[in-house]
Each structure stands twice: as C-alpha cells, then as structure tokens.
Amino acid sequence: LADENRGRIMKTSDLEELNQIRVKLLGKKGPITEVLRGMRDLAPEERPQVGEFANKVRDELKTAIENQRHDIEQEMTAHKIAMETVDVTLPGTPVRRGTAHVIEQIIDDLEDLFMGMGYQVVDGYEVEEDKYNFEKLNIPPDHPARDMQDTFYLGHDLLMRTQTSAVQARTLESHDFSKGPLKEISPGRVYRRDTDDATHSHQFHQMEGLVVDKHITMADLKGTLLAMARHVFGAEREIRLRPSYFPFTEPSVEVDISCFRCGGKGCAVCKYSGWIEVLGAGMVHPNVLRSAGVDSDVYGGFAFGVGPDRLAMLKYGVDDIRSFYTDDLRFLHQFKTEG
Ligand code: PHE
Questions:
Q1: Can you give the pTM of this predicted structure?
Q2: Burial of 182 (0-12, 13-18, 19+ CB in 10 A)
Q3: Closest protein CA for atom 9 of ligand 1
Q4: Quick one: which atom of ligand 1 is closest to the CA of 281?
Q5: Mean pLDDT of the 52-66 span
Q6: Where does the record place the Aminoacyl-transfer RNA synthetases class-II family profile domain (predicted)?
Q7: What is the ipTM of this complex?
Q8: What are phi and psi of 56, to 5 degrees?
Q9: How does pLDDT run across 232-247, given as a tens digit for each residue?
C-alpha cells in the first residue's frame, strides 16, 4: 500500500490532485480508517501489531504528502519568479527622443557665449505694458516708429511686446548701479502685426543685449558684436556698422557681417554685396536712461537686438521663417543634437 501510493503521490505536480489523494487515502472512507475501524473484529493479541502497522503507514503517507506539497509549492514559486524575471539583455522598444528646437539651440549657444563674458540672462514678459515696450524707450504715443511695430493689444495699456528692448526699460529701472555695471542679455518671443510669409512671422524671437556702466564706448559695442558674429558664423568674419535709426539708441547702427558663403566677394546670400545685415544696435539714448531714473551724465551704455530666427536662417540656409513654426518633424529633425 505504502509504496504504490507513495509513487502516485510523488508523480503528481498538482495541489488539487494531491489533496484528492490525501482524502482518498487518509480520509474517513479511506483504507487506513477502514483498517483501524475493523480492529474491533480482531483478536485482542493481534490489535497492537495491526494498529501499529496502520499508524505507521498513515504517518508515512502523511509525511509523503506533506513533502510533496512542499515540493510543489516550491516549484510553483520558482516558476513564478522565473516568469517575472526581466531579461535585461533583450533589446528594448526604441524611445523617440525629442530635441531642442533649432531656435532654442541658437539661443542656448548665445547664452553660453554671453554668460562667459559676464552677462546675466534676464527673462522678460511677453505680455508687456505700453510704457516698457514703447514710452520708456523714447517712443511716445504719437511716435511714427510705432507704425513699424504694430502689435496685438490686450487692453488699453497691455500688449504683446514687439521687441525684447522692453526688458531694457525694466532692468534699467531696477538695477542697483552702486553694486556694479549692468550686463544682461534677454532672449524671448516678440510679436508684430505682420502677415506671415517667407520672411515675416507674427511672432518670432529676439535677444536683447544691454551693457550700462561708466565709460562705455562704441568700441565696446563693436568688439562685443564682432565676438558674437565670429562665434556664430566663424572666426574669419568681419563686421561693419552702418548709420541707422532707433528711438532708444543714439547713435544707432545697422550691423552687417561679412558673407560667409562667398568669402566677402558677393553671392545670392548677401545680395551680391559681400555683406549680410544681421542686427540693430546703438548707444543707449540718454532719454531712456533718464526715464529709468539713471543719471545719464554719469552712466552710458550700448544695446543691441539680434534675431535668433534670422541667425538660424542664415547659418543653415533656411529660406522660409515659417519652417521654424509649422512643426514639420522632417525639417526639425535635421537639427537634432546628440545627448
Ligand atoms: N528693438 C530693435 C528692433 O526690434 C532692435 C534694437 C535693439 C536696436 C537694441 C537697437 C538696440 O528692431
């Protein structure tokens, strides 16, 4: 009995089946119970031997069942663990990584350059007050310069800023000159009421630069812009300043860089002139200093406003500014960076 059943017990790998075997062998209707129950029919001298034997068989079966149950449970746990194991050597599902937008890359790069020269990066407001976007920049309400910078008005005195120069007006007001010079750049979005086409966008980017201290000269401006031009377009670049007009700078200049496609000789990129116009700049107008409460007899400085969109178009030969804003991944992924 014991051997045959031990074989059955050890063959099963199923807890349910094992339980059935247990009930069948050790239960109330099982052979052991039956033997023990039949004891009363036996001669008294036979009872101890039969009883002892039956108990021994019962204990053996019990132990065998217990051991098997333990084995099965262990097997199941092992199986479960094996199923849950992650094979770290399997190739994963590729994750589509985004990348910094090409305009963002240009801005990041300029920030690095200027921070290296001791400038701080200042955020402004895209929704701006008329007085910071215009009035404190020497552009009173009836000034014709407002025509070129028509914008979106959000209320009587609130508008979408047309130029990052608005940040100049704010920081000039808040800067504590007793603690040292003001040197800032301020990149961000600006807005104009323009109809979008290949070279116009109703929103684009600018980066303002402003340095105000004692004894700042136009040579400082020129040196700074030359450093920027060479950083962005190559060490062989030269720059040229042409007289221009902005209400908040005097004198004002338009800044050209020597063409990087044709070695200064002339090609379509520079309209066959050898020079490419890249930005506007000038010496901060005394009125701007004064309306910010800065003593224009003691302090002076320079400012410039450069367009990251324009830089990116020139640098990468992009001929339509709308490409930057229409989210065509085939276009944007050309500027994908590592890391
Ligand atoms: N804010 C001017 C523009 O939008 C650019 C500029 C900035 C010119 C600073 C001079 C000084 O055209």
A1: 0.74
A2: buried
A3: 304
A4: 10
A5: 91
A6: 110-314
A7: 0.98
A8: -65, -45
A9: 999 999 999 999 999 9
